[in-house]
Specification:
The chain is α/β, with parallel strands linked by helices. The chain is about 40% helix and about 15% strand.
Amino acid sequence: MAGQMDPDDLNTKRIVTVFGGTGFLGRRIVKRLLERGFTVRAASRHPARVGPVFSSTARMPEAVEADILDASSIGSAIAGSQAIVNAVSLYVEHGVQTFERVHVEAAVDLAAASRAGKVDQFVQISGIGSDPQSDSNYVRARGQGEIAVASAFPGAFIVRPAVMTGPDDVFLTTIVRLIRLLPVYPLFGDGGTRLQPVYVADVAEAVSRLIDGRNHKGSSIFEFGGPRIYTYTELLREVARQLDTHIRLMPVPFAAWDALAGLAELLPAAPITRNQVDLMRHDNVAAIGAPGLKELDIEPRDIDEVIRLIERRA
């Protein structure tokens, strides 16, 4: 009809800045927003990395140099943006890069600057199980960060994914590789921890829908899990079944994992960290009744599809 604009044309007039835009989830959020027609800025400490990450996309994001740990550097990245996504995460502490600094202080600085800059929407990527009272420094910082962001930017979306999977993840890809490699697979504890793995592309799609105004229920906190809940043992057996291979499982006490992870963190690229061990102590499933993918009309994909992608990539 004459006089009406295509929604994608309207979106190109909206700027979304994604901090952590080259990371595992962040780059998929950027890509999905570009596909929806938004103008997207990928904010990174290393803007030269943006081009290679998105070299195969039909449209390129704008590379913007910004360090979430340096409040003075984020203003230019925020300027003119209608939405901000904070997809920055830290899994191993190094010097001044602590969980408190990244997940609480820097997150609230970004949220406050976004509000001061009259940004319309703010999305904070957190995680299922975040708890401001947790004994785990990582889990506690995640929970405290949620509270601080919600205070600094009222109405901010808090997105809590379960453990995310994808062809380049560090969770399911590792399981697939080790099941093929090891004669005996070590369990975390007795293998009874419950997990609800979610495909990373489904989480990215959900974030893009929130920014695109698809939040019909008016919720501000979302928990995104996959279609099935497994115990860790069940998950390993299901992966082995998908790979058409036999698996032998061996319980390993969490104390042994703590010691191993402590040593691993001394390596340049730790294969496992103590916070990852902490996460495996507790169930990682969406809360009953919490708004999730269903409320955004997304049918979550199961791990069988992700395993096929991992195998194809390998």
